[in-house]
Amino acid sequence: MAWILVGIVLLYDAALLALGRTLGVFPIGLTAFLLLAGLLILVGNRVEARTEIRVDETGVRYDSGLRKSNIGWPEVREGQVQPMRSGFSVQVIGTASHFRFTFVPPVVAKGPRGNRPGMGFPDAAQLAVTIIRRAGLELAHSSEQGRIYRRGVREEKDAVPNA
Question: Which end of the chain is more exposed for a tag (fewer CB within 10 A), N or C?
Answer without folding.
Answer: N
